[in-house]
Design goal:
heterodimer, A: about 260 residues, alpha/beta, Rossmann fold, 2 domains, ten-stranded mixed β-sheet, 10 strands, about 35% helix, B: about 280 residues, mainly alpha, MetI-like fold, about 80% helix
């Protein structure tokens, strides 16, 4: 589904060159939910932007469905951390969700159904006529997620989507993502700096190193498909996996090999 | 401490204090404004009766209002008012349409923006009045003369604002539009245009005022038909009261124009943080 091969990004800074991402290779299979964690400033967002076709890599390639990414790929949706800036404040919730559907050649009724369905999926049924800024932060991010799933993407890229919401809302949104993922059968790549979140959500966690970034470790999360905020997080297996990811990140911070 | 907060505190801590001492209500601003206008009118009435000013050049409020009443009954006055409003509205419409279209176009094409920036910065500060000789050469003393000055003055106000607006597109919103694979038309109408709209409305507000100033100025200086021309005629014929009456009318137009544009702004930007409910109440 998503193949990243030797991808890297250099930035020019003050006449020199800063290698943000050195070389990263990994593969995400169809229908997988993969989390990417790493120490802060490790180029997680750079990686996601290259996969999303929003940033041209300096070397290497990202391939979605076997096709090289040289612009935003068809069937790929991105959910950004800054929901308040990602939703258009001049459009009501329904219009925001409907906007990307307009070029799909659907009838007005089909679009309306899809919007209603997407809003139902994120527990915002009937909120079409509300303005985004009348909603809480967590609800705004739900709208952004509804907009992303409304055009039925096969790949969902999420860039620290819950970093700006409170802990309680965050737990709800995490469960929402697990739920959407299992119901819709989409492939999800979830970028986060939160170790617990990555273990709770993912089937697999990719740990990145500090810049120049490489893939440091890959940890399989064998917690099973049914996860629960209380039971899963208090299970011994969760603690072990969490510790494993934590150790890798600490080592990455120290720059150990 | 704000009165609101001290009020809350007293409600919570001491009921008796709260009920026994009602706060004096502030005078409504509208009333204060009306009082100010009344005072100005009264001063205008009394001053010419003192030796301080010469009533020949500064007639009493009563005389001016009398001249205004006479004018309101004359067809020429209404024709002049219509001429001025026509020049204003037509000139403003042309300036806004051209400024918005060119602003969006130039703003969305970085090479064009870079190529035109210095030319715009050179042309913009040229006072419109400096074009009077050109206007007279081209159009004589007819309406297009006024239009030329109005459009030139108002156009830059709009263009510069729209250019700033297009530059202000939020990078996250731009990334969102790209990742949603919105069409170029959707990006223009759903992202660039709404982002630039608050700036455009500011430009329209400035342009509307400037357009009125230039319309009256052009009529006054060139002698093209309108209120400005009537003011010049009143002045040369020694009808000071009528001159002031017409100046009052021009002032009232300015107030109405500003009011109208502000209403339009609120209507067009109901979603904007500066206009919408949550930021205000």
């Amino acid at each position: 589904m998503l193949e990243v091969a030797g991808i890297g990004k250099d930035y020019r800074v003050d006449g020199g060159v800063f290698t943000a991402v050195d070389s990263l290779s990994f593969h995400v299979a169809e229908g997988e939910l993969v989390c990417v964690v790493g120490p802060s400033g490790c180029g997680k967002t750079t990686l996601l932007r290259m996969c999303a076709g929003l940033l041209a890599p300096t070397r290497g390639t990202a391939r979605v469905d076997g096709r090289d990414v040289d612009g935003p790929p068809e069937g790929t949706a991105v959910v950004f951390q800054e929901y308040g800036r990602s939703l258009f404040p001049w459009m009501r919730v329904g219009a925001n969700v409907e906007l990307p559907l307009k070029r799909l050649g659907l009838t007005r009724a089909e679009r309306r159904d899809r919007v209603a369905e997407a809003l139902r999926l994120v527990d915002l049924e009937g909120k079409e006529q509300v303005w985004p800024w009348q909603l809480s932060g967590g609800m705004q991010q739900r709208v952004a997620i509804a907009r992303a799933v409304a055009f039925r993407p096969r790949l969902l890229l999420m860039d620290e989507p819950f970093a700006a919401v409170d802990a309680q809302t965050r737990a709800d949104l995490e469960d929402l993502i697990r739920d959407l993922w299992s119901r819709l059968g989409i492939t999800v790549v979830f970028i986060t700096h939160d170790i617990d979140e990555s273990v709770y959500l993912g089937q697999r966690v990719l740990v990145l190193s500090s810049p120049p970034t490489t893939l440091r470790a890959e940890i399989h999360i064998d917690l099973g498909p049914d996860r629960d905020q209380l039971d899963t997080r208090s299970a011994p297996a969760f603690a072990k996996l969490r510790a494993a990811v934590w150790r890798e990140i600490q080592a990455a911070k120290r720059g150990a090999a | 401490m704000s009165p609101q907060r001290s009020n809350d505190a007293s409600t919570m801590s001491d009921q008796r204090l709260h009920s026994s001492r009602p706060r004096p209500r502030p005078v409504p601003p509208l009333l204060l404004g009306a009082a100010g206008v009344a005072a100005a009118l009264l001063a205008g009435q009394l001053l010419p009766l003192t030796p301080l000013v010469d009533p020949r050049y500064f007639p009493t409020t009563g005389a001016v209002l009398g001249a205004l009443a006479d004018d309101l009954a004359r067809a020429e006055f209404w024709r002049a008012l219509a001429d001025t409003l026509t020049a204003w509205a037509l000139g403003l419409a042309i300036a806004v349409a051209a400024g918005a279209a060119l602003g969006i176009l130039i703003g969305s094409l970085p090479p064009v923006r870079a190529a035109t920036a210095s030319t715009i910065e050179f042309l913009r500060p040229i006072p419109s009045v400096a074009l009077v000789p050109l206007a007279v050469l081209l159009f004589g003393t007819r309406l297009p003369s006024t239009l030329l000055l109005v459009v030139y003055a108002a156009f830059w106000q709009v263009l510069v604002q729209v250019l700033a607006g297009v530059r202000d597109i939020d990078p996250v919103a731009a990334d969102t539009a790209k990742s949603l694979r919105l069409t170029a038309w959707q990006r223009l109408t759903r992202l660039a245009w709404p982002t630039a709209l608050p700036y455009l409305m500011t430009g329209v507000r400035l342009a509307a005022t400037v357009a009125l100033v230039l319309a009256v100025t052009a009529e006054l200086v060139i002698g093209s038909p309108g209120l400005g021309n009537e003011i010049a005629v009143a002045q040369t014929s020694g009808a000071a009261d009528r001159m002031y009456a017409l100046i009052l009318v021009a002032g009232a137009l300015g107030v109405l124009v500003n009011l109208g544009v502000r209403l339009l702004e609120r209507e067009a930007l109901s979603w904007h943080p500066a206009v919408r409910g949550d930021a205000r109440w």
